[in-house]
Every structure is written in C-alpha cells, then in structure tokens.
Amino acid sequence: MTVFGPSDWMKKKKTKVLIYTRISDNQQSKEDKKNKDPKKKPALIQQKKKVVDSLKAQSLPSTGEWFAEVKSGTDRERGQWNAMRNRAQEIVIAGDRVFIALQDPSRFSRNTRHAIVAIDQLHDLGVPVYATREGIQTGSVNDLHPTEELLFVQLLGGGSFVSQQQKVKADESVAESKDAGVMSSKGNPLFPFARMDPLEAFYEQLPLKTLTPAEGGGPNVFRGTVAGMTAPDGPTVAGVKNMEKREEVRLAKLTRQEYEAWRAYRTKIRNLLIEFQHDPFATGTKQGKANFKAKAVMRMVGRYLKEPWAFSQRSDEELNEIMFNFKQYLGTKALKNYVSIVGKR
User: Fold this and answer.
1) Which end of the chain has fewer surrounding CB within 10 Å, N or C?
2) 3-state helix/strand/coil string of 43-85
3) How many angstroms separate the CA atoms of 232 and 244, rounded?
4) What is the pLDDT of residues 290-307, one digit of tens each?
5) How many angstroms separate the CA atoms of 189 and 207, rounded?
6) Mean pLDDT, to the nearest integer, of 241-265?
7) What is the side-by-side strand order in the sheet with 16-23?
8) Which ranges of 180-255 would DSSP assign to H, the alpha helix?
9) What structural domains and CATH numbers belong to the chain?
C-alpha cells in the first residue's frame, strides 16, 4: 500500500529543513514592489507562513533557513534556488538529515527538465523536496516514494506547460502586431505633463481663428494662445500648427462617431501616461519617471492614434496584456535600456 506524506525521519528533532519561496516578477503586487528585499515582500512572507503552518500541523521542523526570491520558475540561474541546493549538500556532508519544504511543486520550478535534474541530484544526496500544500515528497536514496515523486513531477509539469503556453501566446501576439504594422511608431505626442490637454485647449480657443488680427484673433494668435495655455510642457507654436493639420486630416477621413471614439480613446491613453508620470515622446529628464509599461503601450497604440482610419483600437483586455507582459512589446532600443537598468539593481 502506497503511503503519502512526510517520512518518519523528517519528524525527528535533529532533522533540518530548508524553506524555499518564490514569486515571478509579474506576480508582485504594488506592496511587494515597494520592498527590494524579497524577505520583506508580503507575497513571499505569506507564502512562507503557509509552509510553516503546514509543517507545524504535521509536527515537522519549521524553523529552518529561509530562501526567498523573485524569479521566473523557468530560469535555471536562480540565485536562491541554487544557494538552497548547495546548502542542502553542505548539511548532508556535515552528517545531518535535511529536506526542502515549499508551498507547491510549481514554486520549485516551472521547467520540467531543469526540475528533474535538480530532483535527481538531491535524491542521490538523500534530500527530498516536500510540497506542503499537496502533502507529497520526491523521496530520496534508500527512502523511495515513486508514486509521490511521479505526482510531484506531473504537477510541476502542469505549471511548466502553462508557462510555455503563456510565452507562446505572448509571442503570437507580438507577431500579429508586427504583421499589422502597429509596432513601428509611437504616434503623435500627447503631452501628459502639459498644464492642460492641448487638444482641449485647441478646441476651447478655436473661435480665435475666426477673428481678424485687428479683432485680436487670427491663426497666429490662436496658436500662440494654445501654446501659452499648455506651457511649459505643451506643444510649441509650430507644434500647434502641426496639430491643426492632423485634425484636418482626421476630420476629413473619419465620421463624427469615429472621431469621437478616437478622441475618447486618446484621452484614456493620455490619462494612462499621466498615471505613469512618463512622456515617451520627450527626451532626457523631460520624460519623467522611467516607465517601460508606458513605452510598450504607446508602441502598441501609436499607429491607431496617428491613423485611426487605418488601424483599430486596442481593447482594455489587450491593454492589460501589454502592460502585464510589457517586455514582450518593447522595441529593441527600449528593451536594451530596460535590461541595463534592471541589471544595475
């Protein structure tokens, strides 16, 4: 009869436990992102608590060393993952028994091949990996648990499959976007740092164009007024003149309903940039905070904002996907910049 669960030796007082917790970067909440130290991130603290509570409930050691990190489970070069395995080897060499405890198999890895290699190495050392949520372990030399180990690997493989499917989906989405030609431009400036939305100022002051210079109006006065209302981070007088040309084209090519839909969408995207405190169209410090989600969004919606008669809006679901997997939607230059910044942290 197959018996599941921890082995008797794992319950002995002299047995040591290594606790491993992991979340991926995209699983972090706003609270998690506030703390650079993984061990201060709420999600990892909560994950550890679940493991510890489960160990205590089964009368297993629960005060062992804690290894925590924010890394994709598909990455073999996880610092804390490798450190934990090295530490397990040190404990065994010192003559003590040890097991690794984690919440579930997907925390250990989301790449089946990498996981099996690691499990095999630990198995020969006499170190099982125990998933507290499922209550199953991988077993070890002279303490075989073949059925549990098979189930552990199957569950781990399920997580690996999901990760691969997500990557395929993201890659397909990028390929489709490239085919549609929507990734080659940011579109037109939206001036998120302007004192007033330039388009709102544009239409508010439009009556000035109907007046003569003697009456205090005319094209030059109109452009200067709009530029002044949006300064210092709005369009220049020349920029307002370009706005006039673009508006003429849009109004000529779109129905009133299509134009209003475009304008509402433009406002939504501009509000996103305001929320991100980032202007992808500016350079240097005028861009505001470095925000690669904003860059990705503008790269994906820019062509519609520029030529709404030729391209379609991105739905809210698509926008969420772009912001969630923003690295997949960055241009080569922006991606290199992102990698360089992350590498310095």
Assistant:
1) N
2) HHHHHHHHHHHHHHHCCCCCCCEEEEEECCCCCCCCHHHHHHH
3) 20
4) 889 998 898 888 888 988
5) 24
6) 93
7) 65-70, 16-23, 98-102, 129-131, 136-137
8) 198-204, 219-230, 237-253
9) 8-171 (3.40.50.1390), 198-344 (no CATH)
